[in-house]
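In the previous chapter we treated chains in isolation. Here, by contrast, the input contains two separate entities that must be folded as one system, with a combined length of 233 residues.
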Amino acid sequence: EIVLTQSPGTLSLSPGERATLSCRASQSVTLSTYLAWYQQKPGQGPRLLIYAASNRATGIPDRFSGRGSGTDFTLTITRLEPEDFAVYYCQQYGSSPVTFGGGTKVEIK
Amino acid sequence: QVQLVESGGGVVQPGRSLRLSCAASGFTFDYYAMHWVRQAPGKGLEWVAVISYDGKNKYYADSAKGRFTISRDNSKNTLYLQVNSLRADDTAVYYCARGAEAVTTIFSWAFDIWGQGTMVTVSS
């Protein structure tokens, strides 16, 4: 099983600031880089932001970007908007069991 | 529009069973693999199970093996999760999510559509 470790657990930032979230895998995610990022707001289901490590999902603003390969991945939000304050999860979907990181909460400072 | 709507949750006593449903609309249901994911109160996301587009292949998390059964009825555009011998640690919101297209392998596609979830509370 691939264990995903996200850091930091909580990120306290102000609107307009840059957010950098990290996701580290216990072993290399498959060569096709089956790594995704999701956003979740209270009372809602998760929303796909990034797939295959760096591809934005349909309708996702370009202030969201992903990069990385192998075991180290990053989600960057260049300028935080009020609606971006939420919990973010990384996920590997290239092997069974599918696994998620523990999440990073981006909160308003 | 593309939508997944879960139902069937509720308060149930330990040891009892429940069947969760996920109604799909707005897309060709029988072309996609489908997943169940759960989230305990205040906790992170935990993948539970996946079923292929045609129902022939199923995979489970270790925590679900032996007690949970995923199934689908493509004629009704509906996904199911039968949960037996419920325990307190099964208390969670259960989400269904859309996965891989039929032409790809099950474990090659992110979960691009999610429902709002159905709450299961296991308590005496």
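The mean pLDDT of chain A is 94. Chain A has no helices and eleven strands. Compare these points with the single-chain example from earlier in the chapter.
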